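ok trying this again, last paste got cut off
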Amino acid sequence: MSTTAETSPASSTKVRRARPSDFDAVFALVEQLGIGEKPNRDSFSEAFADAVEEGRDHILLVAELDGVVSGYAFTTIARLLYTNGDSAQLQELAVNTPARDRGLGSRLVSAIEDECRSRGVRQLTVASSHAARFYERLDYRSTSDFLKKSFVAD
């Protein structure tokens, strides 16, 4: 993986693929998201195990600040009927509250974009009702509204 957002001499940040040892740090970040249901550790464990495995259909990256995992980005990839190739969707982006405003989110998005380009992905979309300005600064443009219906077991 080529991530130009990796380490620079003036920075103590690094973006890399997630590893199984990142479990606790990423779980803590998921808890900070505060969207949807409260994260269930057992359910997260299964999803995380799949996400850290190399796969054509997903990308899970983490950002380290001073050697501590302080952010992550999870993207899924699928072949859509209208995109003439693979399309990716940035599903989750989280940065630890004390580490915000240090460029970690931008570095994670840039690294996801680089990885998508290297895989020949035709487009990257993101659904965000809370961080639209952040993505607009990164040259994303609103093209539609996303609506959601949750299916929760009783």
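PB: full thing came through this time. Residues 133 and 139 are 10 Å apart (CA to CA).
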